[in-house]
User: Which sequence fits this backbone?
């Protein structure tokens, strides 16, 4: 049987949300994480139901110099079709209507509970964009790490930089270019992008003893997928040993420079084809980058990170690319091996 205060909202939760005067207080989400990747990404509708079929160019056609009375060499581009899938997150927020009757502010209590569910789904979606893999969890979608999961070997592996970590306390820095021709989110045909919230109203449910009672219920649904149309617009610094990094023994900027020069989009900065470039790392990496940028010595007194403004917010940038801090990136990544 479910424990009150653990699985369901009970009066204790109501009291925690209520000021002495009885109004609903603002809940401070202690577990709230920053997942700005969901703010940067663009979403496109699938072209095949819940799947998205797109063509990736894997080789360019050859060309030749012409001469009088000689024909033109025939050639064609090499292409490969790729199918990306979507999955859907679902959740139900259920509150006993007797609890709501005692709360004095039904709408406020339901909103606070809804915010917690939406934050949880937000964190799961952001984590999935980096770590989900349809090979092990087919009900989900294929994230970035499952695509850039080897060093070298051609293709996407050429975009992965090895920072030298060999243990299991590794993390990554990601350079991602968002755009319809680069990397973008997916949602199934005929549905809406983003998280959907539906008020299911008053519902009759049964407890563990099959006795009925009534609740107010809300349903949350999010159909989501990821497509990487051109792997040249994404790069990854993998195998960053966290303990060595915190000790100041990892030359993060050397690896970031290598990842930067892997990007096709750096050549076309400002062009529509360049997309929206963003760097993602967790707070430990960002702190280490800040320390390396500010602890200048006699022979190292230049500024690596700069303050810039993006959509009205102050952000740090590297070579003009905004750096986003996200708790979705872990410090417990397994070592990425050579192909």
Assistant:
């Amino acid at each position: 049987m479910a424990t009150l205060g653990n699985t369901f909202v009970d009066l204790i939760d109501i009291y925690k949300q209520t000021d002495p005067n009885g109004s609903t207080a603002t809940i401070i989400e202690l577990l709230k994480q920053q997942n700005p990747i969901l703010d940067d990404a663009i979403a496109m509708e699938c072209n095949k139901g819940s799947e998205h079929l797109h063509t990736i160019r894997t080789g360019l056609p050859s060309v030749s110099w012409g001469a009088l009375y000689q024909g033109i060499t025939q050639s064609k581009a090499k292409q490969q079709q790729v199918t990306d899938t979507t999955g859907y997150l679902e959740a139900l927020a259920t509150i006993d209507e007797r609890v709501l009757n005692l709360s004095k502010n039904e709408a406020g209590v339901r909103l606070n509970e809804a915010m917690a569910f939406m934050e949880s789904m937000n964190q799961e979606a952001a984590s999935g964009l980096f770590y989900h893999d349809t090979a092990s969890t087919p009900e989900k979608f294929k994230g970035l790490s499952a695509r850039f999961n080897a060093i070298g070997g051609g293709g996407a592996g050429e975009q992965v930089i090895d920072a030298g970590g060999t243990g299991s306390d590794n993390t990554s820095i990601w350079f991602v270019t968002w755009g319809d021709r680069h990397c973008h989110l997916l949602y199934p045909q005929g549905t809406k992008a983003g998280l959907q919230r539906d008020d299911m109203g008053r519902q009759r449910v049964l407890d563990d003893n099959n006795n009925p009672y009534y609740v107010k219920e809300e349903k949350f649904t999010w159909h989501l997928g990821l497509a990487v149309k051109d792997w040249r617009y994404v790069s990854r610094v993998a195998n960053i040993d966290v303990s060595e990094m915190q000790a100041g023994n990892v030359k993060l900027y050397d690896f970031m420079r290598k990842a930067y020069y892997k990007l096709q989009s750096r050549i076309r900065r400002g062009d529509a084809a360049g997309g929206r470039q963003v760097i993602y790392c967790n707070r430990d990496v960002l702190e280490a980058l800040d320390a390396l940028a500010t602890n200048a010595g006699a022979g190292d007194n230049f500024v690596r990170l700069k303050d810039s403004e993006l959509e009205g917010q102050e952000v740090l940038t590297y070579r003009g690319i905004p750096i986003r801090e996200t708790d979705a990136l872990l410090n417990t990544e397994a070592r990425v091996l050579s192909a």
About this structure: The chain has one domain: 11-56+79-325. DSSP finds eight helices and 13 strands in the chain. The first strand starts at residue 43 and ends at 45. The radius of gyration is 25 Å.
